[in-house]
Structures
1.
Amino acid sequence: MMAARKGSPRHRSPIGVSGGDVAANSKRKSAATAPSASPKRSTPTNALSFSVRCLVAAAGILFVGLGTRWAASQAVPNTVRLPSRDQLDAFPKQLGPWKLDDEEQIDPKVLQVLGTGLALSRRYSQSAERVVEMHIAVFTQTGFSLPHPPELCYDGTGWRVRSTRDARVILPNGTSGTVRILRLEKERGSQRATVLYCYQLAGPFSAERDTVRTFFWQFRGQKSRPPLVKLMLHLSGSGESTEELGLDFAQRALEKLMEIEKAW
C-alpha cells in the first residue's frame, strides 16, 4: 500500500460527494419541489372584521348618547320656584298657644345681603315671659349651595356660642329631623339667649348641612324644585325650660311650613 503523499487532496466521503455538494443538491431539490407562491387575495374574513368594527363604533356612540341623557335626567334642576309674598304671609298668626304679637318689615337691601329673595320676621308669645322671635328665610340659590349658619351671624354681633347640640323633632305626620340649639351670651355675660334653627326642603328638615344636601336629590330629573327654607327662633334666657319652649314652637312651625310649601 502506498503512503499518502504530502499535499494530496483530503479524503472524500464514501459515496464520492463532498458535504458542500450535498448541501447544494439539497437546496436545488427544495427549490424544485416547493409549490409556486399564489398571489395574495382579500378574504371575506377581512370584510367581516371591518363590518364588526363599524357596528361596535355605532353601539358605542349610542351608549354615550343614552348615558348623557340619563345623567341629565338625574341632575338637580336649576329652576327654583319662588312663592309669592301672599303665599308666605299665609303662615298662621297663631300656633297652638302661641299668638302673633308683632311683625317686622325687612328692608329689601338686607334681604339682598342675606342672599334670600323672601323672608318673614314675626314675634309670637304665650305670655309676657314666653316670647319667641321667628325668622323664616326663603333661599332660591341653585345647586347644593346652603346659606351660612346662624353661628356666624351672632358671632359678628357680639354674641358668643357657649354650647351647641342637636335635638330630634318628630312632626305629627311622622316626619323626623334635627333642630340645632345654640346657647349664647354677650361678650360680658350680661345677656343670655337661646337660638334654634334648621333647614327645610318640601317637608324634610335637618340642622346637619350634609343631610340637607341629600334633600335636593328627591327632585332629580324634574324641571324645577321648591326653595330651601331656613327656620330660626330666638328666645331670651337659657336653660332646659327655654329650650323646651323653643322646640315646642319649632315643631308647630315646621308642621305648618310643610303644609303651605305644598302650594309653592
2.
Amino acid sequence: MGRETIQNRQFFSFPREVNEVSARFTAGIVAIVGIVTLLSSQYWLLLFMAYGFLARVGWGPKFSPLAQFAVRVVAKNLPEHAKMSPGPPKRFAQAIGASVTTIAAVSALGFGNTSVAIVLVSMLVVFASMESLAGVCVGCKMFAILMKLHVIPESVCQECADLTKRYPSLAR
C-alpha cells in the first residue's frame, strides 16, 4: 500500500524541474489559440485553454494535450531540448493562466460579457508571447517578488531562494 501511495503521489504531482523549451513552445501555442479566439470570437476555445492550464497546474504536462505535444514531439526534435528550470515558478504562472482563462470563459460563455474576456485574453496573449519568444515568464517574475516579500516561503522553491545553488559562479 505504501508503494502504491508513493507512485500515485509521483503520478499526480507537478515536476520539480520543467523543460524550458517545452514550456516556451506551449506558451507559443497558448498565444496562437488566444489570438484565434480573439479574431474569431470563438469563446468556447477558452474552455480548452482553461483545461490545459488547470491540467498543467495539477500534474505538469501529463494531462495537457498542448504540453504533451511540446514535450514528446517538439522538444525532442530541437537541438537545445534539455534546458531545465525550477518547477514552482512555472506552476505559479500556470495557475495565473488558469485563473485568467477560467474567468474569461465564465464571463463570455456564462454571462455573455465578451468585453472582460477580450481584455483578459489579450493580456494572456501578450504574456504568453513574451514567454514563448523572449523567455520572459511574467508569472515567474511575480513568484520571485512574492518570495522576496516572504509571501511564498523559501521551502516552496529552495533553488529559487538561493540562486547560487543553480548558478555556483554567483557564490564568488
